[in-house]
Amino acid sequence: MSEKTAESPPTVQEVLKRIESEWEALQRVLSELDADQMNTPGGEGWSTKDEVAHLAAWARGLAALVRKERRYPPMGLPEDAAPNTVGIERMNQLIYERNRDVPLEEALAELQAAHQEAYAAVAELSDDDLMRPYDDFQPQDRRPDGHTPILWRIAGNTYGHYAEHRETVEKQWKNCGATNE
C-alpha cells in the first residue's frame, strides 16, 4: 500500500477531485474485464477480485480513521492488527484470507460502498484537518509515524491506492488485450 504521493493537494476539494479521478480510472479498467478474468489469479497469486476486496478493506479503514473510530474492525481485522504490531504484509494477508471466497459481485459491491463511505468521510474534513497528524485521529493507535499528516493516509488508502492497484490490474491483463493503454 502506498502511503505517500509526490504532491500534496492543499484543499479537501482538490483531494476529493483526485479521489474521484483515480476512482473513475480504476472503474474503467475493471469494466473491461469479464468475470473469468476478474477471478483469475495473477503472477503474485491475487486475482483482480482479490485486489478489489483489498481496496475495499483499506477504504473502509480510512473512513473509520478520519471519523476517529477504530480503523481495523471495519477492515475485517482484529482490533490489535496495526501496521506497527503485525505489519502491513500480515494485515494484507489477513484481508486476502478473509475475502478470498467472497463472490465477485459481493466484492465489487463492497468496493463501491467502501469508496462512497471513504469519500463522504473525507468530504467532512476541513482543509486544516488534512495536515493534522494521524495520532490526532487515532490516539488509541499511536504509531512511530503518527506525526505525519492524515493527508498521506487519505492518499494511500484512496487515490494513491486506486492508482497502484489499477496499474497492477492493467499489467496483469496488458498482454491479453483486456485493457487500453
| Alpha plus pi helix count | 8
The share of residues in extended strands comes to under 5%
Q: What is the share of helical residues?
A: 55-70%
Largest sheet properties = none
Mean pLDDT: 89
If you compute it from the alpha carbons, what radius of gyration comes out, rounded to the nearest whole angstrom?
Answer: 16 Å
Uncertain parts: 1-5
CATH topology: Four Helix Bundle (Hemerythrin (Met), subunit A)
The helix-strand sequence is HHHHHHHH
Number of strands: 0
Structural class of the helix and strand makeup?
A: mainly alpha
Tell the overall outline. globular
CATH superfamily: dinb family like domain
The CATH class: Mainly Alpha
CATH second-level architecture: Up-down Bundle
Number of domains: 1
- Distance between the ends: 23 Å
List the helices and strands and how they pair.
Elements: H1 12-31, H2 35-39, H3 48-66, H4 88-99, H5 104-123, H6 134-137, H7 150-157, H8 159-173
Helix pairs in contact: 1-5, 1-8, 3-4, 3-5, 3-7, 3-8, 7-8
Give your account of this protein's structure.
- Helix content is 57%, strand content 0%.
- With 181 residues, the chain is an all-alpha fold.
- The protein has a single domain (12-176), classed as Up-down Bundle (Four Helix Bundle (Hemerythrin (Met), subunit A)), CATH 1.20.120.
- α3 runs antiparallel to α7 and α3 packs antiparallel against α8 (159-173).
- The two termini are 23 Å apart.
- Mean pLDDT is 89; it is low at 1-5.
